[in-house]
Amino acid sequence: MNFSFGGVVAILPVLVLLASTDAPAQRYTDPDTLAPAFPTPQVVVDHMLELAQVKPNETVYDLGCGDGRIVITAAQKFKAHGVGIEIRRDIYETTLGKVNSLGLNDQVKIIHGNALKTDLAPADVVTLYLLTSSNEKLRPVLEKGLRPNARVVSHDFEIRGWKPVTVEKMMVEGRPHMIYLYRVGAKYDTR
Questions:
Q1: CA-CA distance, 183 to 191, in Å (whole number)?
Q2: pLDDT (tens digit, 9 = 90+) per residue, 110-147?
Q3: Residue 11 falls within a domain, yes or no?
Q4: pTM for this entry
Q5: Does residue 189 fall inside a structural domain?
């Protein structure tokens, strides 16, 4: 059925279909899901790890690791250990397979789990590509679990209440990317 309003045609079946179809990024049936699965461009991954000054044998945690590119890069390029936390079983299984196929089992561990319930004590560096609201949920976990001088690097979204040591903007394929670097002190720097 078509309706015309001043030359504009609206097709009801299409509108009904669009209204009833959720975009993947909007499917948050699990309250522990902190962000949609959207990969960080490799050039941004490299810069995040460089900015954090990752050193050999340090441990890098990626909360919401997706395809594992951050922890894999930390292992391959920086000779660090990587721990990826992924809540979605399908992504976890695919990423685990990727780590196995690359022969990185001794350097990279992928955990099917909840970032909000993760022990972060072993982390020297934590990387995030989560929403600002998710970072707010995660902030108490970071404050409780990280030791002094640990670094937290967040892609695009700040951690409200923390003062970044460095904020950098980079353009990748015409899109701006913000990188926030935080250094955990004995007391948290707040704005």
A1: 14
A2: 999 999 999 999 999 999 998 888 899 999 999 999 99
A3: no
A4: 0.79
A5: no
